[in-house]
Design a protein that fits this description.
The structure holds 2 protein chains of 2 kinds. By secondary structure, chain A is α/β, with parallel strands linked by helices. Chain A has one domain: Rossmann fold, CATH 3.40.50.970. Chain A is built from 12 helices and 13 strands. In chain A, strand 11 and strand 12 form a beta hairpin. In chain A, helix 3 runs parallel beside helix 5. By secondary structure, chain B is of the alpha/beta class. Chain B has a 5-stranded parallel beta sheet, with helices on one face. In chain B, helix 4 packs across helix 7 and helix 5 packs antiparallel against helix 7. The longest helix of chain B has 19 residues. Chain B is globular, with a radius of gyration of 26 Å. The two termini of chain B are 35 Å apart. Classes of the chains: A alpha/beta, B alpha/beta. Chains A and B meet through helix 1 and helix 8 of A and strand 19, helix 19 and helix 21 of B.
Chain lengths: 350, 594
């Protein structure tokens, strides 16, 4: 039988702080190709939200068009979702976030949805520091239209068709850094140990959190010669360091040699403990981050892990000085104070 | 851990919990699928090959398969598949099977085998040896074949017709039968120069309480349970007093009390020494007794038979409570309360059975050991006298029908080897076939879309009617529709998840899709440590971990077999077919194979 999803789950699944099991964070069964990296990313989101005891109804999932943008159907079934026009997820996310700042926004996009048709939207949402997790499920090809090279494909990389890509790639991590994104990371769908804490940190971050997740397309771009294949990424990944996400209620327990680890307290009181592999790397130094990216690229490496974070940042609401209260919670009089108030404003501007 | 050796037939066999738990290792999922397909005769023959008495066992089996059934583990309120009652469905709905029975060679092989006792063990030996050309000569003191299946299981649980049909499949192979013949001397039997002698005489002696005060005086109204049941079965006894006490807490006690209800017992009570939960009777048999208005009084130890005017008027019991020491060993400690008197007209004693080998002479080379039981090899069932074999309750004390059948098969293997001048220890490995079930990307030969329904209850006959007639069968059995629904609850545990290390690209697709979080890719470690690192709790140490070889990332794939639903999603989501669902059929080697 096709696509059955048995209703049985492990009878002794652990329960989180709000009484949910991981099952409560699942979505529909995936219709992506078997072995698609995107499914692992969905599973990582499920794991991250479960461990953080996030109430599913407080999450809004937003996406554009593409294989990646289908995935919100495959996690957090009990959350809100909006599948927008191709490349326009950031606009929808901005609108939603402006209207209700209490929600947790997870934007899922792909390399086509972000680096091609949605590039204009992406750069602006980054520079505005909208409080959201923006994840690009990056497979270097257009899987939904049979595997053409995308704008993130590396020069010389070969997809299943066997033709080398000749155009310079867009490194979305570099772009995000350049535009002032306040949380920038790269990960790999095949490494949940790294990806889950990064998602948790990104969800805790008060501002624009960008994660570029290399996610092999098993059908069109997982062949020898591709720089986005499982084997290639595993061989060429260079990590900035391992990240432990420590929720607010827990104490930091991991003990590293002095000088090799950095603790970063996040806005919501949780903490990130970064166990650095490169001694001179400082994730709070934008220049160092850019340098590290360039260094890795020089010898064909793919830098993964937490690349940059500015934990004390002002998100769009704070920049604009908007109301603390979600619009839906404001009464009619507050939302629409009437002619007298308008007249007073106009008067103040004369 | 070392990589799992899936070439060892026992590894995947153990994953098929029901089959593994069955003493005869009947391929349960295989016949359940045949029932789903409406192929009742085929389902029956799968059973018949393995357990010889599907119709009998489908009603009376102790069903060790059911507590083992994975379905009962996959959720906290799940019950096992009604395996036993599905077996009965195959028997109830089959066509004539005589054409399918093995041909019996006209020309015999010249070997003559004596079978002493006509119960399930002996009949199984005959069933296995007759098709090979042996001449089997069966002796039993009862008038007809079947042994305890005939004498001890009441007709309202096992209709005589069902029993006779299955006994006759074997006897009609040309077994030379000497019924009504009591064998009083093994020596005389050996003098008849059989090539081998099989002893399947069961555990024919019911325990008594000879020293309890009043026992002698009450003798007219005190009956040994199994003897009384036999006397009812052979229609020598047709009534009992209105008030009956049944002593004992096993299945024989349940059969006694329910039979008593049908022979005029109006106030029938079961009185047992142990707490209710510790009783040996199967839970469903206790339920059936209670449903027939039979109270079960636990924690009552018999003290004396009370006699008035030379006649039994009741029994006195001491009240006790069970106290368990640190090792879980139970002792029954008197509560100090007043003894309890229970009035009765008759007492049925079902407090255990013993073997009795008074007919086997001490000086003929058959060694006896502990508890006067013969020294029998637990694998070959050979005694210390090489051409004498034991099986069933006669070998290792009271067990059940399915164990007797399993032992009969093994004894037949030994007898065949022995008669061919081969070493009885030189036994062939079980037959194993393993075959991919893949038909398409999301298509399997087996139906993995299992039913979420709760276990279906077998309908019962109307109580008032059933209690009036000893011969009305209480359980009606599933009809075909119910059987289909119940059968669709089976998880198909014989559709094995088989992992090919060299194909795996470690994409995690199987890990992500597995509904019960069975699969983990992790650094290797010793089993106890490994169990701590798995995606889901791994607390059932009786279930194995399936561990791959080291993969390119230096990790291993670890699958906890415990809660696997055999849904095949891991294989459906695997891009490289590193996972495959393969049907694993395990067949116990029978006499004459290979």
């Amino acid at each position: 039988m096709s696509y059955i999803n048995p209703s049985f789950r492990h009878p002794n699944l652990p329960v989180n702080d709000i009484g949910c099991t991981k099952t409560d964070y699942e979505g529909a069964i995936s219709t992506l190709c078997a072995g698609c990296g995107h499914d692992s990313i969905s599973a990582a989101v499920v794991q991250a939200c479960f461990e953080m005891s996030i109430e599913p109804h407080r999450v809004a999932k937003l996406s554009g068009i593409g294989c990646s943008s289908k995935t919100p159907a495959y996690f957090l079934n009990q959350s809100h979702g909006f599948n927008s026009v191709h490349g326009r997820m950031p606009s929808v996310a901005t609108g939603a976030n402006m209207a209700n700042r209490d929600m947790i926004y997870i934007g899922v996009s792909g390399d086509g949805d972000t680096a091609s048709i949605g590039m204009g939207q992406f750069v602006h949402v980054a520079r505005r520091n909208l409080n959201m997790l923006y994840m690009v499920e990056n497979n270097g090809c257009y899987g939904l239209t049979k595997g053409q090279d995308s704008a993130t494909a590396d020069i010389g990389s070969k997809a299943k068709g066997g033709v080398e890509n000749v155009y310079a790639p867009i490194d979305l991590v570099n772009v995000a850094l350049e535009l002032g994104a306040t949380f920038v990371a790269r990960s790999f769908s095949g490494d949940k140990k790294q990806l889950v804490p990064l998602i948790q940190a990104a969800l805790s971050h008060q501002g624009f959190a960008f994660i570029d997740v290399v996610s092999p397309c098993v059908t069109f771009n997982n062949n020898p010669g591709s720089t986005k294949a499982y084997d290639y990424v595993r061989e060429h990944a260079e990590i900035t360091g391992s990240v432990d996400f420590v929720p607010k209620k827990d104490e930091i327990t991991a003990d590293y040699e002095p000088g090799t680890s950095t603790n970063i307290t996040l806005h919501d009181g949780s903490a990130l403990q970064l166990h650095k592999l490169a001694k001179d790397f400082d994730p709070q130094d934008r220049r160092a981050a850019t340098r590290a990216l360039e260094n890795a690229k020089d010898h064909g490496g793919i830098l993964t892990g937490l690349i940059y974070i500015d934990p004390d940042t002002k998100d769009l609401h704070n920049i604009l000085g908007t109301t603390e209260t979600p619009l839906r919670d404001l009464d009619q009089d507050t939302l629409c104070p009437g002619n007298d108030a308008l007249a007073a404003i106009n008067e103040s501007l004369r | 851990m070392k990589p799992t050796d899936i070439k060892d037939p026992e590894y995947f066999h153990k994953v098929v919990d029901c089959q593994y738990a069955c003493p005869a290792h009947t391929p349960v999922p295989e016949y359940i699928r045949l029932i789903v397909a409406g192929r009742y005769t085929d389902a029956y023959m799968v059973n018949w090959e393995s357990n010889v008495f599907p119709g009998v066992l489908g009603r009376t089996c102790d069903r060790p398969c059911e507590p083992a059934c994975r379905r009962g583990r996959v959720a906290n309120d799940e019950e096992p598949v009604a395996i036993c009652r599905l077996k009965r469905v195959a028997a109830d709905n089959k066509d004539d099977i005589t054409e399918r029975l093995p041909p019996i060679p006209k020309e015999k092989n010249g070997k003559r085998i004596a079978l002493i006792g006509g119960g399930p063990a002996s009949l199984t030996v005959a069933r296995d040896l007759m098709p090979l050309g042996y001449e089997c000569v069966l002796y039993d003191d009862q008038e007809r074949g079947g042994g305890m299946m005939r004498s001890q299981i009441p007709a309202f649980r096992l209709p005589e017709k069902v029993l006779s049909e299955e006994v006759n499949y074997i006897l009609d192979m040309g077994v030379e039968c000497h019924f009504g013949t009591w064998i009083s001397s093994m020596k005389e039997m050996l003098d008849k120069n059989f090539d081998a002698v099989f002893v399947g005489t069961g555990a024919p002696r019911g325990r008594d309480l000879p020293d309890l005060p009043g026992r002698k005086e009450a003798d007219d109204n005190v009956h040994i349970g199994i003897e009384w049941l036999a006397s009812v079965a052979f229609e020598h006894t047709a009534k009992i007093g209105k008030k009956v006490i049944v002593l004992g807490g096993g299945n024989t006690a349940m059969d006694c009390c329910r039979t008593a209800r049908r022979l005029g017992g109006e106030e029938v009570r079961v009185v047992v020494r142990s707490p209710f939960a510790d009783m040996k009777a199967s839970p469903w048999e206790k339920d059936d007794a209670i449903a027939e208005d039979i109270p079960i009084l636990d924690n009552h130890v018999p003290q004396s038979f009370e006699i008035e005017n030379g006649k039994l008027k009741g029994m006195t019991f001491e009240k006790v409570e069970a106290v368990y020491d640190e090792n879980g060993k139970r002792s029954l400690v008197p509560t100090g309360e007043e003894p309890v008197f229970i009035e009765c007209d008759d007492v049925l004693m079902a407090i255990g059975q013993e073997n009795s080998f008074t007919w086997i002479e001490q000086d003929i080379g058959i060694e006896f050991g502990k508890w006067d039981m013969p020294e029998v090899n637990p694998v070959t069932f050979q005694s210390s006298l090489p051409h004498v074999f034991f099986g069933g309750d006669a070998a290792f004390g009271p067990e059940n029908i399915i164990t007797a059948v399993a032992q009969g098969h093994q004894a037949a293997v030994s007898i065949d080897l022995f008669c061919n001048g081969e070493d009885v220890k030189n036994r062939l490995a079980p037959g194993v076939t393993i075959m991919s079930q893949k038909m398409g990307v999301h298509e399997w030969v087996y139906d993995n879309d299992i039913s979420d329904d709760d276990r279906y209850a077998v309908p019962h006959a109307d109580k008032a009617t059933a209690l009036k007639n000893m011969k009305i069968e209480v359980e009606l059995g599933f009809d075909q529709d119910q059987a289909y629904k119940e059968a669709m609850r089976c998880l198909n545990c014989d559709a094995q998840t088989v992992f090919a290390d060299e194909k795996c690209i470690e994409c995690d697709a199987c890990v992500d899709v597995c509904p019960t979080d069975c699969i983990t890719f992790t650094d290797n470690a010793e089993e106890a440590d490994l169990r701590q690192t798995l995606s889901a709790p791994s607390n059932n140490n009786e279930q194995d971990l399936y561990v791959s070889g080291t993969l390119p990332t230096q990790r291993v794939m670890v699958k906890d077999e415990d809660i696997c639903l055999h849904c095949g999603l891991c294989a459906e989501r695997c891009p490289t077919a590193a996972w495959d669902m393969k049907k694993f059929l395990y067949e116990v080697t029978k006499a004459g194979r290979g």
